[in-house]
Design a protein that fits this description.
The chain is α/β, with parallel strands linked by helices. The protein has three domains: 1-118, Beta Polymerase, domain 2, CATH 3.30.460; 120-242, no CATH class; 275-489, Rossmann fold, CATH 3.40.50.300. 55% of the residues lie in helices and 14% in strands. The chain contains 24 helices and 17 strands. A hairpin with an 8-residue loop joins strand 3 (59-60) and strand 4 (69-76). Helix 17 packs across helix 21 (443-459). The radius of gyration is 30 Å and the shape is elongated.
Length: 508
């Protein structure tokens, strides 16, 4: 359910800045059950409107951009607060209604008096066009709303004129025949002017209704994909507002966008550039919590994501090597160490143990780097829970000289597009309900490790975030900064060839 409270807040800010808005997918009331809130603004206001939304914490999703349509989402703790789809025209690939027609005779929403919705005629056309050409399914809820509009009285002449001007009168007459048949089957007949039902497309629909609709039930009318697309391209070529060369170009580009959509739908492939974010911090600082919330937000943005948890000594192969090395080096007379930290320090006290540990650590981290590079190559958004900062800080906890390792790891691992360090003071760490019992038992070890994290975070130029802040606020900061960076250069050859990059879709 969409947040009417949040939209009212945003809408007030837009109106204060002289930006008029219309909720275009609303027949009578606030569109509660829409996937996102479709808001029409005037073309000359689009830049200002986009900037205001960014200032209010909204993120523009460039991976789902459409011609003259811009999707924004606001998140809190990894969950969507409100998705707003800003339009400069009413259309799907191409305009379906004249802007002057939509902005004329606006009404106030029944449950949101300060929210404007289109006139009855415009609402009628927007609803049938969207559900026939875009959704391929005319829902029962929409059919009931259309029935109410007809009973209240609408100007059929304006509706017919607008559909003819924009080239989709054939689709309009067909939809009217389908609605008439639906109402006869599943409810009381609604009076539609006879001249509309007597048009050629209306007659064809009445004669071959079963071949046109895959399935008609009380839930709505299912429209065959190819039949809808055929009428769509016919509309593109019949649009009286466009010159011939523009119509041909629109046919070609919308065909390419359909291919992209079907590839995404059937093969789950959404082309995007590879991107790497690293989240670091001492154990118990909240890295995994932040990564999980962040990944949830990425999924809502339809971004292909891979999560990597990186810690040396965590793979089964290296664990076996470590156990084997301990078995060889263990002296019978040696007392059992009090903790794993002391145990590791004891083994690293010998030259052989130190060399073996260094070699296995570097090898394991090298394979982690290959895994990350592989996902980046295939265009995944990689979220690394722990990265170079964590590896170096923990190495320095046991070994004095780690500068050479820092250089090796910085060379081997791909450089993150952005990295964050969730910093904690010693008191904050000790006061948390951490599972790190060994560090809690010996605060000196915790203090040493925290100081190493602080030192190397500055040296590696990792962005410091106070880990004691509210976790949702931390995640919001990470999300906004990261996605703005990701979308600032959102280009792939695949998208460019299919005319779906921002500079080809829109120049705003």
């Amino acid at each position: 359910m969409l947040s009417i409270k949040e939209y009212k807040r945003v809408n007030i800010i837009l109106q204060r800045n002289g930006i008029d808005t219309v909720l275009i997918k609303s027949i009578f009331s606030f569109p509660y059950y829409s996937d996102n809130l479709d808001v029409l603004v005037r073309r000359n206001d689009i830049k200002k409107a986009k900037n205001i939304l960014r200032e209010e914490g909204y993120i523009e999703l460039k991976n789902v951009e459409e011609p003259e349509k811009f999707l924004f989402r606001k998140f809190n703790g990894g969950k969507t607060v409100l998705p707003i789809h800003i339009h400069t025209v009413v259309g799907w690939g191409v305009p379906f209604l004249d802007n002057d027609f939509v902005w004329r005779d606006l009404r106030c929403s029944m449950d949101c008096p300060e929210c404007y919705i289109p006139s009855k005629e415009a609402s009628f056309l927007i609803t049938i066009a969207h559900e026939f050409y875009e959704d391929k399914f005319i829902k029962r809820e929409s059919i009931d709303g259309l029935k109410k509009l007809i009973k209240e009285g609408i100007n059929w002449d304006d509706i017919i004129k607008q559909s003819k001007t924009r080239g989709w009168s054939d689709g309009f007459y067909l939809i009217m025949a389908l609605l008439s048949d639906f109402w006869k089957r599943f409810g009381k007949s609604v009076e539609i002017p006879s001249e509309i039902l007597q048009e050629k497309w209306g007659l064809i629909a009445q004669k071959k209704i079963k071949s046109i609709t895959r399935k008609m039930t009380e839930k709505g009318i299912k429209i065959p994909f190819f039949y809808s697309k055929w009428l769509y391209y016919k509309k593109v070529l019949q649009d009286k507002r466009k010159p011939l060369h523009t119509k041909i170009f629109n046919v070609l580009t919308t065909l390419l966008w359909t291919i992209e959509l079907k590839v995404k739908q059937y093969f789950k492939y959404n082309s995007q550039p590879g991107f790497l974010i690293a989240i670091s911090g001492i154990d118990g600082s909240g890295k995994t919590t932040q990564a999980e919330m962040f990944i949830n937000a990425l999924k809502e943005c339809e971004i292909r994501t891979k999560y990597i948890w990186m810690r040396y000594g965590s793979s089964s192969f290296v664990n076996k090597l470590i156990k084997f090395g301990k078995l060889i080096m263990r002296k019978k007379e040696r007392a059992k160490p009090d903790s794993k930290i002391e145990e590791r320090k004891a083994y690293l006290g010998s030259q052989i143990g130190k060399v073996l540990w260094e070699i296995t650590t570097v090898i394991e981290l090298y394979f982690y780097s290959l895994k990350i590079r592989w996902f980046l190559f295939w265009g995944y958004f990689v979220v690394s829970d722990r990265y170079i900062l964590d590896a170096i800080s923990e190495m320095a906890f046991y070994i004095k000289e780690v500068n050479n390792y820092a250089k090796i790891l910085s060379f081997v691992f791909p450089r993150p597009h952005i990295s964050f360090y969730l910093s904690l003071s010693l008191n904050d760490f000790l006061n948390r309900n951490s599972d790190e019992k060994e560090l809690l038992q010996n605060p000196e070890n915790a203090e040493k490790l925290i100081s190493l994290y602080n030192f190397w975070s500055k040296k590696l130029k990792v962005k410091d975030i106070n880990g004691t802040e509210d976790k949702s606020k931390i995640n919001n900061k990470i999300l906004i900064e990261t996605l703005q960076g990701h979308y600032s250069n959102f280009w792939t050859l695949y998208r460019w060839l299919l005319f779906s990059t921002s500079n080809r879709l829109n120049r705003v």
